[in-house]
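Table 4 source record.
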Amino acid sequence: MSRWIDKVTVGATLDRAAERFADLEALAFKGQRWTFAELKADCDRAARGLMAAGVQPGDKVALWLDNRPEWMHLLFAVAKVGAVLVPVNTRFRTSDLEYVLRQSDSATLIIADRSGPVDYLAMVRELIPELAATADADALRAGGFPDLRRVIVLSDASYDGTHRWDDLLVAGERIAPEEQAARGQAVDPDATTIMMYTSGTTGFPKGVMHNHDQIRNVADQASRGAIRTRDAILTYLPLFHAFGLYEGPYMSVVSGARQVLMDRFDPAEALRLIEAEKITIIHGFDTHFREIMEHPDCESTDRSTLRWGICASGLPNVEPTVRRVQELLMPSVSGYGMTELHACAAQSFPSDSQEDRCTMSGAPMPGYDFKVVDPDTGRPVPNGAPGELLVRGYGVMQGYYKKPDETAKAIDADGWMHTGDRALKRDDETVRFLGRYKDMLKVGGENVDAAEVEALLLTHPAVSHVAVVGVPDPRLHEVGCACVRLQPGGEITTDDLFAYCKGKVATFKIPQHALFMAEFPMTSSGKVQKFKLREIALEELGLA
């Protein structure tokens, strides 16, 4: 297994980018533009603001913001002062935030007072009533959060018990740049710099700890995708999610590519920016690409500058969308990753055949070893046979924060991360992701792959989206429930849906229940939250 000799911190990576690409455009957001030199200056100013606030090396800094330039300023600033960034999902609400703040031992919480209709400050006040009674923001002591020392608000207004971010930026001007630079030089690249909470598709999130080696993963991706200063990356994925963070801000400072940032995903605005900004790179899950391709503006938009992007394949229900991407948008590549392994532990080569890029999940990135084992015995299975994917290498997480038992279950004594994912590996090391083992149904003793059934149901012309979850059955132990979103104007009955499956798959694979829904519970990164979908199904079917 290869080693990476030149270890570099996240903060130093930005400094190198400012030297190499000083006057090139680094960031565009709603009409504002920054060169790499200007971006570094803003991030250094933010670092001094954090120092003025009292943020210490090793402190956890929870960041609860929508995509915006300040997110990037604070991303690099936290790294430069040696603290640990804790990105918080902007879809979280009070109980979710309470869990993350307490579980992460965050000393600092940074928020916007509100974003559109969402009043973030009101939710924080509900959780921390001490704010209203605290005259001195430096004296905050929250009974429910013993480690929390300060709340910082991005706002034109000032609020009791909180620090106004613009005031801290002014206070930071009293800190000498040399003092801030020395703080950055003292940062250990092997120290934890980020703690990302898993996206929660199968249960409540866990804090995944990584050191600065995340930059190595991005640099290897840039090399494999030939990303350079000529490229323009459209970032609509949320920055609090690994996919958006790695392929947007990190990729930009590693490669010198220009980043065009969106505050949220909107297919119409994405198409407008693709043409106006001459975007070359877009990424996403099949849901993002489907919405872009199905938007009425897609056909009239000039998409000729698009040259590359990641649309993870492997699952049969994703394949039709990926094939359409090749026709309508660009020659995409596939990839495999998870929060615990960095954004891409495996990735296709652009030179791979279209068949491989549409059906497989890529080859391991440098520094990663993959093997596929029988989940019951732990023994390796022959190449081409499905089993549980195990991954080893520099990119495996440091662990789940304050969860030693769960960490030990995930990473064995030999350093192999047990992903819980079904996969197969070919002789040439190319892997194919086949789904989560938790997505496997056990119907009357027979294994049923939910993705296989979903792929079949998606071929019905009336079906737009489908997700199959398992629900209890007194005779067969478990049966499938198809949760279906119909095409606009689409009509189909439950009996018609089941009849469509007959003769195409074994009868035990055919769902026994169907629910027609207007929308699915989703993560902000665009994944269906099947554990929540199952709860809805149990409630609707009277099985809860």
